Structures are given as structure tokens and as C-alpha cells.
Amino acid sequence: MRFARIALGLLVALVGLLVTAVGGAAAFWLVGPDNTVGTGEQSLVSKGLAVMTAPDLIDRHGPTLHLTAAAAKPVFVGIGQDIDVASYLSRSQYTRLIRFELPSSFDRQEMTGQAAALTAPAGLDWWTVKASGDGKQSIAWPIVDGRYDVVVMNADGSPGVDAKVTFGVEIDGLFGSCLMVFGGGLLLLFVGLLLMFVRRRRQPLPPVPVVTPLNLQPVMPYSPPKASSQPSSVRRAVGVASLVLLTATGCTAIPPKNVSQELNTKPAVTLADGQAVLDRYAEVRARVNQTRDARLDETIEAGARLRQSRAAAFIGRKLDPAATNPDAADSYEDIEIGAPEFAAYPMRFVSTATLSTDLLRKQLAVWERGNAGAPWLLTHAVFPLTAANLPPMDGLRTPDKADMAKLPLLPQAAGADLARYLSEGPTSKQAARFAVSADVSQLLANRGKEIRTQVAKDYISTVTDTFRPDGQPTVFIASNGEALVFVNLTEQFLQQVEPGNYANWTSGAVSAYSKNVKYYQTLRQDYLHEVALVIPPTGKPRVLAIHTQVVGGGGS
Question: Whole-angstrom Cα distance, residue 198 to residue 194?
Fold first, then answer.
């Protein structure tokens, strides 16, 4: 019996010693009072533009990730969604950390690509958390479910990264749990030693009965009753040790596995970032209006919007070279953002805002970002009346096949019908397909008056006015099922000159392209129209607004 107790005590003591060592090392060497497990300083070096973690390296959520980086030159450290980081570095050379090996080493993969400098990362708005500058830069991020990457690079986006980086994972209650394991180990060790070295007291021998001459019954000395219900010391030790260990192992749960690793989509922009995009646009637009710098235009606009702005700037330089009447710059208020979810770049969002320069109208605009390293650019802008019935911005999304199948008229067909309607005028068969629109009525009235004026001239024989769709429409689906469609239309206003006569442009915006040049066959004005219309699930499409700009002129 004694041998069994000693053997059991030795086993319990050894287990206790092991648990004590592990708990003590974890509590006082690995973790510490800040509940953080660190990797120690790691040297992250890359000939490319960045060092980044693979998205499946951060595959659990709940703890807080701490990161500190330092380098000889200004360093940037940030965490972003993989959809953004992958786009930002897609064509660049960089180093990827694909696996973490205990105790503190990373397996690396060199990604080939261009070594040209990237846009400075700190200026991009999609980082979840970031820090940039000289000396040590630190960030802390409560890890959330999803595909996220850690990026370390030079603050100016240049190649050649050489940084000392420390990773740490903070788990609430981890230090306390380690202390409990340490205490449980000490308890097991004590119980084991107790079993090994404390000897059990022997039971006293039964007393010898005393025989009296009178042959009386023997008188037994009093002894306390044996407590048969009291558990043995072995059972008590095993029970206590089991309770301690179960308590210790249950104090800190393993962080849960990410479940949205495959659902790699994100809104194009947050409300705050969308408002910042509009504020930046207003600031740069004010400088463009003052300086007429076409290169600045390219930093804030693209597509049809840029073509219209370039044309307006060209006309301004020709007709008002001294810039005596610069365009007033708008500021935006009451901004609303419609930000669809995207799984890849390019991304777009829609904004509405009231204008400081025109209280009767608001701006309805589309913004596009080609890749994560590019700025947001204004691609469409129209100005509907403030009382116009716009689709709701909340819940705006890009269309799928099911959405398109529900529409009574496809966006391409709507653009073609509108072009024909405007070309043929109010009597067109297509006119009946559209709801009444103030901008359409005003445009047709102006063109009808101009045609009548020109035909009345004895040197003009006929006038044709032709609208055509230009490019593919940009389409969004609102939460109420309406399609918000942005289309571009070109217009050529062509006048035939009577034989034996000539005609020329003498005034107006078109004269910036051709002034006092004699044409003997035709006179031509070219326009570009930005149009926003709504296609409801039932009923007629309605044109919200048309924005028109002269973009050329001349003749033959």
C-alpha cells in the first residue's frame, strides 16, 4: 500500500513540476502582465516595395494584434483588407509572409513585379489602422473576422524595405490563466510530495480484556468512532488537482476561427471617407478654377466629366485669357453616400450633395477608383433639381442578372431611345416612353428655337441635330428596385450652307474652336451630355438631369 502511494505521489509530483514549469514560463517569460504573446524582434527585409502577410496567416479573430516597426528611414505599418492590399501591390515586387513557425520565424515568398515606387501608403483611405513616420511606429488592432493583411513598407512607397518588427497578440485574461496553471502545478507538486513523504499513522492495537474474579464483562477503553465517510488523501489529491487543471484550461478559450475568409467583399467607401473625397475635390477644383491647370484636373476627374472640364477650361482660356471671370467653386453640404459592395477593383460609389452656388439644384455624382493605389476620380456629375425624386442611397448596389431581368427596359436601350427622342424632338415615338422631365423639355425647347433661328438665315439651307449614345452606361440598383443609370450622349448640331455662300462662328463658346473662319459647306457644333435617369420596375423611365458642354466646333 505504501509503495502504491509513493508511486502515485511521484507521478503527481512530476506532473505538478511540469505544469509549474510550463505555467511559470508562460506567465513570467512568454506572456507577462500585459496578456500579450510576442514574437520578439524580427528583421523583415525585402528588395521590393513591401513585406506583407498572407491573408490566411491571420485566420482567427478576437485577440488584439500589436505591431511595432522601426527602420533607418521613415517607415509605414498598416493593416488593410486583402482586397485593397492585393490591388495596391498587384503589379509590384514584394515579400510575402506565408507561415509562422514556432517559436519566432516566418516562411517567406518573394513575389515578382515592378520595382517602381507606389503612391505613399499613408495617404490612402482604406487602411483599417495605420502609422507612418520616423522612428518606431506602433499600431494595435482588435482582430475581426475577414481577410486582412499586415503591411510594412517605406513611408514614401519606395523599394528596399529593411525594418525591425515585433508582433504581439494580446488575449484577455491570458496572464491570469497562466498564473492559475502555475498555481495548479505548485498544488500538484505539493500533493505529490505529501503522498511520497508523509507516513500514515498506524491504528492502535485492540486492548486486552481484563478478567475479574466476578467474571464480569470486560471494560473496553473509549476510542472515537472511525469516520468511514471521509475520503482518502489520495482521492482528495486527485480531485483537487483535476479541479485546478480543469479550471485553468477553461479560463481562456482558443480564439474562434474566421468564417468569412471566402466572403472577400467590402463597401467601396465609408461615409466619412466619401465625405473626405468630396471635400478634397472641392479644394482642388477651386485651385483648378483659379489656375486653369489641366494637370490638376486629371487628379480629380476622369471619363466624360474630365472631357467636359477640359473643354470648359479650353474655352475659358480662349475667350477670357485674363481669367477675369473665373468659375466659382462649390462647397458641398448634406452629403449622402451610396456605396455598393465590391469584390475587386475598380470600385464606384454615388454621392448626392447640396451646392453652395446653386440652392435650386444638387449634385448627383459617380466616383471611381481604378485600383487601391489610385485616387477617387469624378466620372459623372449632373445637377437635378433639389425637389427631384432621387433613388435612396442606402443599400445601393451593382446589378446582377436577376436585377437586370426585372427591369422593363435595359439601360443600353434606354440610352438609345433617349438619343433618338432628343434627335427627333417632341414628336418622336420615343417621347411617349419617358416621363416628363424639366431638363429634357428645356433642352428640346432650346434646340428647336436655335434650329428655327438658323433656318431663317438666307445663307443656311437646312439644320440637323443628331444625338448618339457614347460608351457604356453605368448602372446601380437602389433598395427600392429602381435602376439609377448614368449615360453619355454626343450631339452634333450641323448646319448646311447655301451654295455660293459662306458662314462662320463669330461668338459664343463654339467660337473658341473656330472664330471668323469661313466655311462654304457646313457649320458644326459638338456637344457632350452627361445624363442621369431612373428606370423603375414598373412605369416609365424618368430623366433626372442633363449636363451639357460644348466640346468642339468648326465646319467644312
Answer: 5
Output the DSSP codes for 308-329.
Answer: HHHHHHHHHHHH-TT-SSPPPP
DSSP structure class, residue 365: E
Cβ atoms 525, 447 nearer than 8 A: no
DSSP character string of 534-552: EE-SSS--EEEEEEEEEEE
- pTM value is 0.80
Residue whose C-alpha cell reads 478478567 in the numeric block: 211
Task: Using alpha carbons, list the distances in angstroms from residue 369 to 47, 125, 127.
Answer: 28, 12, 15
Neighbours of 478 (CB within 10 A): 20
Distance CA 59, CA 64 (A): 13
Residue by residue, DSSP assigns 414-460 as HHHHHHHHHHH-TTSGGGGGS---HHHHHHHHHHHHHHHHHHTSTTE
Sign of the CA dihedral running 177, 56, 269, 67: positive
Report phi then psi at 463, rounded to 5: -135, 130
Nearest to 67 by CA among 139, 163, 152: 139
Phi, psi of 358 (to 5 degrees): -150, 100
CB 481 within 8 A of CB 537: yes
Q: Give per-10-residue mean pLDDT for the chain (556 aa).
A: 70 74 64 68 91 87 89 95 94 90 76 93 95 94 91 95 88 68 72 69 56 45 44 35 40 68 81 95 90 88 95 90 77 94 96 92 96 96 94 96 94 96 95 94 95 93 96 96 97 95 92 92 96 95 97 95
Nearest to 82 by CA among 119, 57, 114: 57
Distance from C-alpha of 111 to C-alpha of 120, rounded to nearest angstrom: 20
